[in-house]
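Handout, page 2. Input:
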Amino acid sequence: MIDKTVHEPLDSAEHSTTGTRAARMAARVGILALILLAVVIGVRPLSIPPPMDQAPAPQDFSVARALGDLETITAETRAMGTPGLAAAQAYLADQLTALGFETQISENLSVEQHAEAGVVTVAQSHNVLARLPGTDSTGAVLVAGHLDSVHTTTAASDCGGCSVGVLETARALRAGPPLRNDVIFLIEDGEETTRAGALSFVLEHPWAQDVRVALNQEAMGSKGASLLYVTGPQNGWLMRQALRAMPRPVAYSFANDLVWGTGTGGSDLDQYLMTAPVGLGLVYVGNVPAYHSMQDNVANLDLRTWQHQGDNILTMARHFGNLPLDGTLTAPDLVYFTLVEGVTVQYAAWVGIVLALLAAVGLIVLAVIGLRRKALSGRGILFGVLVFLPLMLAAMALSGALWYAIRLLDPRLQVFLIGISYDRPWYTLAFVALSAGLMTAGYALFKRTLWLELSVGAAAWWALLALLTAWRVPGSGPLFAWPVLAALPLLAVAVFGRRSSPGWAYIAVAAVAAAGAALIVSPAINFLGIFSGRAELIMGLPVIALLPAPLAAMLAGLLLPVTDEVGGGRRWVAPAALAALAAVLLAGVALTADFNLERPKPNMAAYVMDENEAAWYTLGGQVGNQRASLLDEWTEQFFSQGAEETSFSPWGVYYMDSAYPAYRSPAPRADLPAPQFEVISDQRDAAGVRRVQLRVSAGAEAPMRVLRLEAASGLDEVRILGESLAEMTHVDAPAQTLWIEIYGLTGEEIALDLALRGEGGVTLMMEERLFSLPELADMPITPRPDWMMPSPTFVSDMTLARYTFTLP
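Output:
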């Protein structure tokens, strides 16, 4: 028979060693305060950049020197193929030349074939390049950042700060002592659309073969610390050197696992690693709602953030610039995480396996001792193992359902904004509290099972995940191994019985264990919360509630003895308190959140015209087919003839399978110059294959064009601008439909050579995209109020003119 008296709460008469009721209450408050402090300390490194040096030397990175350059290049948007991008490229090239560098602006034509997606991208990009020779070079260090933007922003962060950061790094290195190795400075074009600039550099520029270490910069927001978020494979040597070089590193290997686990590195670094042995990327991710919007401007950029990123890139460029780079630079992956501000833990992946084994073995030993002492029962532990996953999934599902319902009811959450809501951090905190509360409430239903046994069952899942991650994704292993190791002393004291220990000692163990686990897990929850808004926008799922929920719910299961202690043995205290906290946060946001000058409402209109008709479109976020937020005092001017419910894709016509709720209304036709389709030749060769040469001249000077080729009998061969699309179509696998996206070839003629199968003809449809709404004589467009801005979609405030040519 189990002696349950050893598990009674601190309120028990047998546990009066802590003194008065007030003292016991103070102890519980102390535990909560220590947990809260651990969370604040854990999330601070990613959230708060270090202070700035007020008097930087000439060889230091200085945002004060660079700020004027940033203001100059952000005077207008810099979408690929626009005058704003060309002006910024010329300005930065002039600045590099004035520093004494031999500067190039390379012009690159790239043709990429994506056979699985059935899409070809053609891009005319321009890169700004300069090179600082070393004294005895063993290879080159690449310092890179892209200059182009999307058309809905002037992009002070993404990525004006990156490109000006390249310039300021060049200025600082030129002013400092000579380096051993060459440093290549690359300000690339096309990252937002095609990666054409980075790809062209790697495939065509002779300097690319010299690069041994690639350092790339990115931004997704306007605040926060500079995060070393991604590296290439076999990063052991690179990460040890980088963490040694950076003055105040912030780095989490779980972020690297997450980024690559979603498919790619998510930046131009992917291209650089095609030739460079090693490379890494920096990013800052505070204030994500500013991403790709007019809120990404110089006024909203936290200069401390920019300084931190600049310090990191400069110190690494200088460090790698003096290392021998002619040897093997790859080494087994490193596990790393910033524990507290200024302290980044690092160890080899095999150490992570050892730690996971220690956690698992320690838990097994503890369970065996508990069974022998009859402090635990096998049935109770097994029950704890079995209910853990259903309870966690239920907590996730209920949290997700509530968030989905909130978005259905609140039109302010139905707008198209990358971060979903300006209040995303408060929503994340609310759903962390709610999921933990739901998990604890689920456990409270099982009154016949000791919470200690349920906690050991939860710890078994943590230990299993620690082993699996240490083996398959070692960068994420610390998220599971270290919390188990932190919780083992707490579970041990509970197993051995608190009557043999002073009450205050148990409280201390409980507080330290809970704080240690929270310290490790809170940065990951914070990181997942930051990326949840973007993920929700793309996936259409209630990800803001779902992404942080698993770790929060799992942590609640692991720390049930602490919950028991804080609740004084009353199982419903913690669930009720956590639910109340979530309710207060959600209600507080609902009552105070609104759009204003500091938090502009995003909205959009698109003008679509073909040979037969013209129409206005406006769309919002993907929330249960809702359209409540679409018509407002600005967009309603386009719908005076009524609003027809429809759908429209924020990514463009070739992504209509990802269309969002929209309104449509008839529009007057704009007077736009039409493109010309000219057949140069049309004949059959000796083998009977019909070969057609077409020339398509631009109508309006559109920075982007989309071509769609349809041939019922199949396309045996296609060439565009002399480049064969052999990966897309050939004799053995003729294509009936082919998409071609064209970027940056503003106003230029497009040459198409086709080989057609059989007797059928071909239909060519072209969409020209202008980054503005048309000027209509009969319908002047009223500008937005100051508290509104264009939605960060690829079709916001855009004219899409569609034309069709059929060759029988």
